[in-house]
Task: inverse folding
């Protein structure tokens, strides 16, 4: 398993990253903060558990945000194609 990942500075000028302001204006910056942390926590193939509870407590455990904010941020990231949020056998994955 990879110990960590490098995030390219190209992320700051990414059209998909910028599109989060259109996809979910209220949580755009939260979605932008969440994305690199999702990348850092993913396995070697870019996968991880995708249920909202696990994401919140794994990626940003000290966040005061509610689970609903995490869910809306994940929906926005999926909408702009920064993540693929999918379900297999009633379990969510990224």
Result:
């Amino acid at each position: 398993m990879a110990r960590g990942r490098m995030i390219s500075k190209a992320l700051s000028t990414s059209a998909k990253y910028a599109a989060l302001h259109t996809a979910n204006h209220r949580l755009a910056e939260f979605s932008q903060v969440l994305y690199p942390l999702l990348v850092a926590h993913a396995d070697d193939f870019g996968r991880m558990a995708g249920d909202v509870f696990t994401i919140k407590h794994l990626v940003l455990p000290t966040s005061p945000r509610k689970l609903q904010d995490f869910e809306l941020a994940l929906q926005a990231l999926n909408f702009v194609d920064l993540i693929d949020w999918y379900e297999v056998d009633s379990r969510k994955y990224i």
